[in-house]
Amino acid sequence: MKKGILGVIIALVVIAGLLVMPLIGSYNNLVTLSENADQQWANVETVLQRRYDLIPNLVESVKGAMAQEQEVFGQIADARAAMAGASTVDEQVEASNQLEGALGRLLVVMENYPELRSNENVTRLMDELAGTENRISVERGRYNETVADYNRKIKRFPTVIIAGMMGFDERAYFEAADGAETAPKVDLTNP
């Protein structure tokens, strides 16, 4: 009789273990994917910070030759301030998009000033900024890939059940700002 009860207990423990192990594995996988998304967002923030740090140098290098373009500089300053004050991913995305638009307008203005393009400091800073923009683009793409993996995982059965019970929510993608498909226009005919 004791051997029979012991056998049943062992069988129940084995069955329970077989049922719990996949749950533990799914939970651990969700934690890993979530951490990967957080890490990739940190990479995006790193290159956004690099851009944020380069902008004052670029603006100061260009400012003297372009005093009449104060509106563009004001937009850059406002966007940079918004970036500094952003606390959530969505706010950072919005501020980054605002900054990209202002930088795009600055680049268009600069093309109309050949003496600026020949300035060594401006050229060097523009190259740095272009490199930074490329890094941002790459890191955003990687972030979106990581988020896609995470979002797919939390939506699939049976992981969707575990994700719901453990509070794993869908993450937002880094998307282009409205109007990003339209090139900025700068009118230099009005002083």
TrEMBL record:
It comes from the Bacteria. The lineage of its organism: Bacteria, Bacillati, Bacillota, Clostridia, Peptostreptococcales. It holds the Pfam family LemA. Belongs to the LemA family. SUPFAM superfamilies: LemA-like. It is found in: Membrane. GO terms for cellular component: membrane. Keywords: Membrane, Transmembrane, Transmembrane helix. It is a single-pass membrane protein. The keyword Magnesium does not apply. This is LemA protein. PANTHER family: MEMBRANE PROTEIN, PROTEIN LEMA. InterPro entries: LemA-like_dom_sf, MamQ_LemA. The keyword Ubl conjugation does not apply. It comes from Acetoanaerobium sticklandii (strain ATCC 12662 / DSM 519 / JCM 1433 / CCUG 9281 / NCIMB 10654 / HF). The chain crosses the membrane at residues 5-24.
